[in-house]
């Protein structure tokens, strides 16, 4: 399995960023890491190994990107600065990583995927940019970071603004009315997977309901148990990517 390492100074983030690429052709997948994890963790957790057959066969090419969660959602910054840093991260993905993918891979489609907070990153960016992404797979993800759960805090401590609204799928998706955007979303291959005992199940159910209400087809799979660990994600990527 071909493996390549990339590192460059990101102007938008004002710091060096790293990523790993597995494979040389096929559907390119930008794979986001879990909360505060890094570009190499999916390889260390054998999630990449679980995709090896598809990668080696040229079905998919996987771009494992790094995160800046410790500088955004999980930083000590004020809530308004947290979301701004997150938006800078998305700008890095759209304006630096996506062009790299396009230079290396001439496939007409592009996918986003992620587990846990990485699933949030994938689904959030894909639903906002269906002109760029054609497929998204969110595994064990949370789609409203403003809501307190039993073991998970409101990451903005009650603060809410327009930037936060447009980065929380469970807030902006139910209110999508633009016909062009709805048409683009309707063509996207959307998959959400979560465990029956996962704290994020209600978030997934709400997003699935909202997508149905606006007429956007998708797949929604509920696994037994919590299913919020690498050993489950290794099985999920085989089925849904």
TrEMBL record:
Record InterPro entries: AB_hydrolase_fold, Esterase-like, Mycobacterial_A85_antigen
Listed Gene3D superfamilies: alpha/beta hydrolase
Top-rank taxon: Bacteria
Entry protein name: Esterase
